[in-house]
Amino acid sequence: MRDSKLLQEPLRIAGEYRRPDADTLVREVRAPYAETTTIRAGEVSIARSGKATRRFSLSRAPELAGLQASFGALLAGDRKRLEQHYTLASEGSRERWTLVLTPKDAAMAEKVRAIALYGRGAELRCIETRPAADGGQAQRTLLAGAAREAGDVASATALAALCHAAQG
């Protein structure tokens, strides 16, 4: 879900994240448009049908480098690697939990204040990226059961409540 003061309601983006190998993160958007973003070998490529593929260095988007590092470490259960990039804070119980990742890298911290992960049991239900800029709106990615439960939910407040409901 993308929310902005420029939008009348949050933009609902549907697709999936994939990790075809340990060094690659792919975000495939299927609706309301088709777009594939691939992060690999220090480079980002964004492919949209009918347009030339855009490529740029991860050094231009430190938040994406952090996203790639955190996804890989999370999926591998690699706490040490997560702690190389973030300060970790957890709360809750196994049934309902929150893990907050605060970037250690100064360039990433200029863009992202924190990434909060909300879950129930083994299910990661929501990723909330909190921007560093004052007044910046958190961006939420609803996953698994939370994405299914979102149904026709359209307001940013209701989506935030659904995201945070994972914690209790």
Strand order of the largest sheet: 1-2-3-4-5
Order of helices and strands: EEEEEHHEEHEEEHH
Global geometry: globular
Sheet of most strands: 5 strands, antiparallel
Number of domains: 1
Low-confidence region ranges: none
Oligomer: single chain
Topology-level CATH name: outer membrane lipoprotein receptor (LolB), chain A
Number of helices: 5
Number of distinct beta strands: 10
Helix content: 25-40%
CATH architecture: Clam
Task: Please identify the structural class as seen in this structure.
Answer: alpha+beta
Please compute the radius of gyration using only Cα atoms.
16 Å
Instruction: Note the gap between the termini.
Output: 21 Å
Mean pLDDT: 85
The level-1 CATH class: Mainly Beta
Description of the molecule:
A hairpin with a 2-residue loop joins strand 1 and strand 2. The protein has 168 residues and is an alpha+beta fold. It has a single domain, classed as Clam (outer membrane lipoprotein receptor (LolB), chain A). The strands form 2 sheets. A 5-stranded antiparallel β-sheet has the order 1-2-3-4-5, with helices on one face. Strands 6-7-8-9-10 form a 5-stranded antiparallel β-sheet. It is globular and about 45 Å long. Helix 1 runs antiparallel to helix 2. The protein contains 5 helices and 10 strands; from the N terminus they run E-E-E-E-E-H-H-E-E-H-E-E-E-H-H.
